[in-house]
Amino acid sequence: MKGHFHRRGCTCKKKRCSCGSTWSFVIDIGRDPATGKRKQKTKGGFRTKQEAESAATELIYEINQGMYVQEQNVVFKDFTSEWLLIYSEKNNVKPGTIRIRQHEINKLLPYFSLLKLKDITAKRYQDALNDLKEKGYADNTLDGVHRTGRMIFKKAIEMRIIKNDPTEFAYLKKDRKTIEELEEQEIPKYMEKEELALLLQTSAQKGLDLDYLIFLTLSYTGMRVGELVALKWKDIDFEEQTISITKTYYNPTNNTLEYQLVPPKTRRSKRTIVVAEDVIVALNEHMELQRKVKERLGDAYFDEGFIFAKNDRHPGYPIFIKTIENRMARLLKLARLNTELTPHSLRHTHTSLLAEARVGLEEIMDRLGHCDDETTKNVYLHVTKEMKKEASHKFAQLMRSL
What residue ranges of the chain are covered by domains with CATH 1.10.150.130? Predict the structure, then answer.
């Protein structure tokens, strides 16, 4: 495989001229399988013949080793649309995840939209991350944007559209946090058992329709709100006292009639939970009440077996996640509890109370449907650390009493 070298732009007869001439090379890189015609690679702009020869030698080596990539003129905006389709089909991800990925792509589009992938350098990519940071985006948001960026360019390399990955050595600037901020970030908000008892008491006495059953089930199982809303009667085994979690509720437009039931968050999220008799009794009572509503409404009731169903304009359809959030905010205010708590706080509360009951971390993870969750670990370690301190204090008291 030979290269042809040419000097361009020089009309001088001097051996050393300063008129800005450059060297280029042309190399055969095989034949087009479709046409049979010879394909050539041309590259110019080299200051000396030696530089052109060096670049040509490197290219010939790549071709001989099967490492050569003929970079394509694919625009970033076009490729992200193609990548999102490939990503969703290959990973069988939930619509909500696709929405998140699209939001993250939208953060990168102002910087790269009409640029060719091959023209996006490591510096350009790093400058984009730095600019997003200066605009005040949170670290979690930037983590997601960078993660999506890495996946996009990795796929472009895999498809031999580009040769170099501009995200490979990119980094995110992080804010330096105080110790107080770190502690607040690491330990999410949750309730003590006395606070949880007060919330449940308030929901039983002053709650709206379904409130007590909703917050009893969430706090006694640690399930996600989307998993709760998606529950059907067939998921309850009254004899074995278990709840099977196989799906979650998705409704980005908050249109009652256009909900979707999608796979849970992770593979481990599909699980069967053994529940307390209190929950089973409350579910049984609700089943009887719902049966009477169905009899009264007849065909007007959308009977797909949902447990936590509406009784208003669209009876039988699952209630909104937002409704549960609003209901909890109302009860927290009535009970004079921390109004910053959310339904997801009940999941952390479940973790803390299981830890207090000396249930192991692995068992808690299994019950919550986690593979490896830092937040759950932090709650568990915080509670068990306090228990160890209390044990040490009790020992010291015992020794002092001798």
Answer: 76-175
Residue spans in the chain of domains classed CATH 1.10.443.10: 193-389
Each residue's pLDDT tens digit, 155-185:
999 888 888 899 999 999 877 655 555 455 5
State yes or no: pLDDT of 319 exceeds 80. Answer: yes
Other C-beta atoms lying within 10 Å of the C-beta of residue 352: 24
The SS3 call for residue 35 is coil
Which CATH superfamily, name and number, covers 76-175? Tyrosine recombinase, N-terminal domain (1.10.150.130)
Helices 343-356 and 321-335: crossing angle, nearest 10°? 70
Between CA 373 and CA 397 the distance in angstroms is 36
3-state SS of 192-233? Answer: CHHHHHHHHHHHHHHCCCCHHHHHHHHHHHCCCHHHHHCCEH
271-274, strands of its sheet edge to edge: 236-237, 242-245, 271-274
Q: What is the pTM of this model?
A: 0.62
DSSP assignment of 109-157: HHHHTTSBGGG--HHHHHHHHHHHHHTT--HHHHHHHHHHHHHHHHHHH
Tokens 């110790």 sit at which residue? 179
Residues 6+ away with beta carbon under 8 Å from 207? 215, 327, 331
| Contact predicate 307/231, CB 8 Å | yes
Q: Rounded to the nearest 5 degrees, what angle is found at the Cα of 198, between the Cα atoms of 196 and 199?
A: 65
The span from the CA of 42 to the CA of 214, in Å, is: 69
Place of tokens 């990519």: 125
Q: In degrees, to the nearest 5, what angle opens at C-alpha 388 toward C-alphas 384 and 391?
A: 135
**SS3 of residue 27 by DSSP:** strand
**3 state DSSP class of 275:** coil
Rounded (to 5) percent helix, strand, coil in the chain? 55, 10, 35
- The mean-pLDDT minimum among 227-231, 305-309, 331-335, 391-395 falls in 391-395
pLDDT confidence tier of residue 13, bands split at 50, 70 and 90: very low
- Phi, psi (deg, nearest 5) at residue 247: -160, 170
Closest CA to 369 of 237, 264, 230: 264
The CATH code of domain 193-389 reads 1.10.443.10
